[in-house]
Each structure stands twice: as C-alpha cells, then as structure tokens.
Design goal:
- The protein is an all-alpha fold.
- 68% of the residues lie in helices and 0% in strands.
- α3 packs across α6, α8 crosses α12 and α10 packs across α12.
- The longest helix is centred in the middle third of the chain and has 26 residues.
- The chain is globular, with a radius of gyration of 19 Å.
- About 2% of the residues have low confidence.
Length: 324
C-alpha cells in the first residue's frame, strides 16, 4: 500500500511539473493547455527531433529561471514565462544549426536572459496595459543573429534565412498545389519550419484546446494568402509561408485572446492579419542591412497598435484575463 501511495505521489509530482513545461510551447499560440503543447512538440519532432528538444528545453530553462528569480507563480504555471525562451531556443537551432555545441550553449544562456528581458517588457508595457507578446524573443533573436557573423564559433554556415531582403521578383500566380501548402505553412512558419505537415499538426494541437482558436488561425492564414496575392507578392514567398505566419498570430491575438470573440472582433482581427502581411516585407527591407530577419516583429507591432486603437472602439471589448 505504501508503494502504491508513493507511486501516486510521484505521478502527481510528474504531472505537476510536465503541465507548466508543456504550456510554454502552447503559449506561442496563446494556449495554456498542456495537451496542445505536447502536440506542438510532436509536430516539431516530425520535422527534426532536435527541434522538439530545443523547444521543450528552452521552455524549461525560461520557466526555471523565472522561478529562481521569484516571478509570480501563476505566470510560470500558465506557460507565460516559457514561450519566448521556447521560440528563442528553436530559432537558434534553425538559424545556427541544431547539432552544434555552440548553439546548445548559446540557447541555454539566451533562454535565461529571456526571463530578464521578459520581466523588463512586462514592467514597461504594463504602464499602457499592453502584453509583451514575443517582444523579448524578437529583441534577443535579432541581436544574436545580427552579431553571429562576428563570432566564428557561433556564426551559421551557408546563406542567410532572411525573408525578402531585396526587391520582390518572380511570378505572382498561385497554383492550387502552392495554395494549400501556403495555408499550412503559414502556421508552421510560426515555429520557423516550412513543412506543410507540421502546420497541419499544429492546427490539430490548436483544435485540441479550442475549436474557435483553430478556426481563427485558419482565417488568419487565409487572410495572409489573400492579402499577399492581392499586393502582388511572389508566389514562391506566399507558398513557403514566410508572408503569412504573422497574420496567423495577429488573428489569434485579436480575436478571443486579448479582445472578446465576436463578429466585429473577427473582422477587426482579419484586418490586423492583413496589415501584418503588408508590414512583413516593410520590416524585411528595413532590416535588410543586418540580414533581413523578420521574426515576429510584424505581429508584435501590428498587435500592439491594434490593441491600443481598440480602446477607442466600444464594440471591441477586452477579454477576461487579457492583462498578460
């Protein structure tokens, strides 16, 4: 009987540890659901098992550092202290090479620093009652990828993964095969991956937690495709998902996460998604001298702007618990 009780205690402790850890990857798409986090990690492993390890390890390091610094327990438990470090670790794995020891060490240090930058961003933006979103990740990822060529031990091999650093070129007509791949890649590129099946698995993870969130993500992806096509973006850039992933994040943020879901809110969110799509090449050109790494800057800038403006529109009300 004692052994059985001990087994239950260990299982309880294991579940109590695993749930906040898995919520880190889930919070990349605004979910506090450990099941979705598990599906997201499996989706990353489908592309490369090391990506799943980096994402989960990054979330663990970010959350662990936040605990050591005595950040509010509810933030750690809900995954809010793990998603920026999750993205940062995965970014380093994709951009700098997952199999390099220097990448592992840099990701570990970067994830710890992310907790400090997150605390600063939360404190600063709280003055305007705005969330930090992925601002800490963007700042650190941008700093490291810009500096990487100067350091022989961490600089990546081969060409840059920059998005649209030069004037657009190529055909703009989308073929059916490119269209459906773009739809899923807009979701997978949130995690830097262009495999369409990863996007499908990520949508399944969203569906596990919320059918409404999955539908909003689909609407955001479609909005990104339509906007990019209407503006004449090259079909190759639309098909690989690099033009539309920010639209997915903006749609999710503005419809149901920070603003109460409603028909008017959905239209507002899709307008935001279209805006983020148009802003993406603008950010790429602005950052072209330093490599053109867009990351999720269009999402951050568009969402903060639209959330600030929403206070002037009575039909758009803040969602409960949206103060994060």
């Amino acid at each position: 009987m004692r052994r059985s009780d001990g087994g239950r205690w260990r299982r309880g402790r294991g579940a109590a540890f695993a749930r906040p850890l898995l919520r880190g990857p889930a919070q990349v798409m605004f979910l506090a659901d450990a099941r979705s986090g598990a599906v997201f990690c499996l989706a990353l492993c489908a592309a490369d098992w090391r990506y799943g390890c980096y994402a989960l390890g990054g979330a663990a390091l970010g959350a662990g550092t936040a605990r050591l610094l005595h950040v509010a327990r509810d933030r750690v438990a809900s995954g809010l202290e793990g998603f920026n470090s999750c993205l940062l670790a995965l970014c380093f794995a994709v951009f700098l090479g997952a199999g390099r020891l220097s990448t592992v060490l840099l990701a570990a240090v970067g994830c710890a620093v992310t907790s400090v930058i997150t605390a600063a961003a939360v404190r600063l933006l709280h003055v305007w009652h705005l969330p930090p979103l992925t601002l800490p990740y963007c700042l650190l990822a941008g700093a490291v990828t810009i500096a990487a060529p100067a350091f022989r031990r961490i600089r990546p091999d081969g060409g840059s993964l920059a998005v649209l650093p030069r004037a657009s070129s190529g055909p703009t007509e989308l073929r059916p095969g490119e269209l459906w791949r773009a739809f899923f890649r807009n979701v997978s590129e949130v995690f830097f991956l262009d495999e369409w099946y990863v996007g499908a698995l990520l949508l399944a993870g969203l569906l596990v937690a919320s059918r409404a969130a999955a539908l909003v993500a689909c609407a955001g992806s479609a909005s990104g495709i339509v906007t990019a096509w209407a503006l004449g973006a090259p079909a190759a850039r639309i098909a690989d998902g690099t033009m539309g992933y920010n639209a997915v994040l903006v749609a999710l943020a503005l419809c149901g996460v920070f603003l109460t879901a409603a028909p008017a809110t959905l239209l507002y969110a899709l307008l935001g998604a279209a805006t983020a799509t148009a802003v993406t090449p603008a950010v790429a050109h602005l950052l072209a001298p330093s490599g053109g790494h867009v990351f999720t800057w269009p999402f951050v800038l568009t969402t903060l702007g639209f959330l600030t403006a929403a206070r002037s529109f009575p039909r758009l009300t803040p969602a409960l618990g949206s103060g994060t």
